[in-house]
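Our consortium's second objective concerns turning raw sequence data into structural hypotheses that experimental partners can test. To show how far this objective has progressed, the report includes one record in full. It was chosen at random from the queue rather than selected for favorable results. The single chain below, 285 residues long, was entered without modification.
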Amino acid sequence: MSARYWQTSRFKIDLSRPRVMGIVNLTPDSFSDGGLDAHVQDSVRRCERMIAEGADILDLGAESTRPGATPLAAKQEQARLLPVLREVLRWGVPVSVDTYKPEVMQVALDLGADIINDIWALRWSAASGPSATEVVAAHPACGVCLMHMHLEPTTMQVAPMQGSVASPVLDFLQQRLVQAQAAGLAFERLAIDPGIGFGKTVEQNFELLREQVSLKAPGSPLVIGWSRKSSLAHVGHGEEKLAVGDRLVPSVAAAVLAAERGADVLRVHDVRETVQALKLLSRIR
């Protein structure tokens, strides 16, 4: 089974070429660009710029999931998210919401969000109310991205995975796909993400890139997010480690390598540069 499109709330996203998902952090403590989008109008302008630069999808995240991040109350997450979400949903482009909380998912989907991008892969349940799986299963068509994360954000880099990771990551994602379909989600709604940087060492992250073709086995759209990740700090000259703001070149290079190895959707901060690089890849192909 293989999907060459991704079914979402309002759009059937064509995956005949790699799609660019622009990351819009609505958090003051994001590892990459926290604070830049602290105000609604700044965030909306950033979204506008990403669309103008060629983003196919916008991915809005209102809670930081960087290593060591403190969890955010659902009400506070909604307060950050909803003003921007309401605006961008008017633009006629696919909109993803990066959240793991069922109550936030429900509100976002009720407004018309197209995709739920979940670092917990629908494993989270609130103290009361429906689970994440129940929320998305009750929706007739929303897209869902199931990500692999080892442990959780406060501990994932304190005690990362051990040994080779490609096989256990694939096993986990396949299990989550089976469980999601058993809950009533159609296969064409589901995408997977190996979770670069989420509980993996530098070498394990590079292993996932090297072995990425194996992650195509389930046939689901493959979402990859290398943009500005800390592993890219280690490709500087000599002992130099690249600061977050200096990781543009390796981020774009990693995106192109991921696309060559079958990535269907690339989550990036730097849309214009990634789009240009993918056009070059397309010409070569």
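The partners drew two points from this record. Residues 22 and 161 are 28 Å apart (CA to CA). Residues 166-182 form the longest helix (17 residues). Both points have been shared with the crystallography group to help prioritize constructs.
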